[in-house]
Amino acid sequence: MANGQGKDRRRVDLAALAAESMREHGLEPDFPPDAQRQLAQIAGPAQETDGQIRDLTALAWASIDNDDSLDLDQLSVAEDLGGGNTRVLVAVADVDALVKKSSPIDRHAEENTTSVYTAARIFPMLPERLSTNLTSLNQDADRLAMVVSYVVQEDGLLGETEIYRARVRNKAKLAYNSVTAWLDGQGPMPEAMAKADGISEQIRMQDQAAERLRQRRAERGALDLETIEPRAIMQDGQVLDLHYEPQNRAQKLIEDFMIAANGVASRFLEQQGFPVMQRVVRTPERWDRIQRLAAEYGTRLPSEPDSRALERFLKVRRQADPVRFPDLSLAIVKMLGSGEYVVQMPGEEPIGHFGLAVRDYSHSTAPNRRYPDLITQRLLKAALPGDRWPYGRDELTALADHCTEQEDAANKVERQIRKSAAALLLSDRIGERFNAIVTGVSKGTWVRVLHPPVEGMLVSGRDGLDVGDKLMVKLVSVDVERGFIDFVQ
Q1: Which of 151, 209, 309, 433 has the lowest tally of Cβ within 10 angstroms?
Q2: Which range marks the domain in which residue 320 is found?
Q3: Strand 340-344 relative to strand 433-440: parallel, antiparallel, unpaired?
Q4: Where are the beta strands (DSSP E) in 237-367?
Q5: Using one digit for the tens of pLDDT, what is the confidence trace for 220-258?
Q6: Bond before 452 cis per omega within 30 degrees
Q7: How many domains does the chain have?
Q8: R_g (Cα) of the chain, nearest Å
């Protein structure tokens, strides 16, 4: 049971708590002096003039990201080829052009391996002057990029593919929520879209191509999961509210394009005889538990892991009970197991990604915020002219293990601060009653309050409860530092 009662919100420094959590989990919250010195010597964005770098600045490139995102990793543009075929170009920020392997900034990025996003403070993998400026694909700025080109056919299969270096210019910095509202006919055209010629037609064409990709992956058994991860709304260091936003149409558009681009990058490296750092989710070892869970809803799943059958079950449950579907999704996610990075050497069979129903999958489209993507970028840049591998086998294997460990650590930090923010929000509401739903009964009974969307432990009145039961609970204590929230019936 949490040992702290409600506290004055203003006395808790979530940013300091986040930095402490970073250190506790083996992550460095600040950049070392040698990285700062290297940063001071970087005069501006990369200005390479290699004749192999194509000038694509005239194309109608646009970015779509979160409303507050400043580290823009990718742009996209599409071309109607007729006959139901669409050529999609995904431009990925050329971070390696400024951050060379084994440089001080690279060593810090290699240590943390990822940006860590908490409501109180962001801990970027690269210094913000790079990730939000000099290597970010900012609007109206010329930047170097790696371009992944692929044709989306009428049936959602990929046709001709190509990878090359280019110079690009973002014509419109767009945001998921406003683009989704516009696509759904629920909001006006975003201002940045209206000001840039051809962008509105571009986004509609891209949305249609993404839908074809998504449908094809669904037929292969890609899992359409939805879990609740509320985002803290903060102002002047105080938590004002917790807000949950389900994945929307524009987010799915970008997700579908990135999954396709990552697959193209992996297959290109395989074809060139290069190693690939794959992102995998292995066939679930706890399939029997997933079977038992489905059986509770009257669905019989096959004896062997089958992503198509699991997706059919999830689709039925989403339609039958959308309110409790996120909790079912979370249970499935936990039983599928977490993803990991593994190295696929030339000639080896890929393990694949069970949840995405794809065979070849790497991370390559976010090098400003994920180190595996920067590794893949260096491999691609070496493979294009036929140069030697920039990493050895043992080095890559060690990096894959390290990236998996640090990504897990980063997730723990983000989860810890989400819990602490939730406890902070509720710290002056001790004694209040809330509508809730039971979300877990293993190693304690867990309940999720519907508003604000927080989860805590039911410390008494647990007898006879099971996952999915609805009940009224009373908040009895919180511990902000530990992120504990305790309820009773």
Answers
A1: 433
A2: 287-336
A3: unpaired
A4: 238-243, 276-280, 340-344
A5: 666 665 566 667 676 666 777 666 677 799 999 999 999
A6: yes
A7: 2
A8: 23
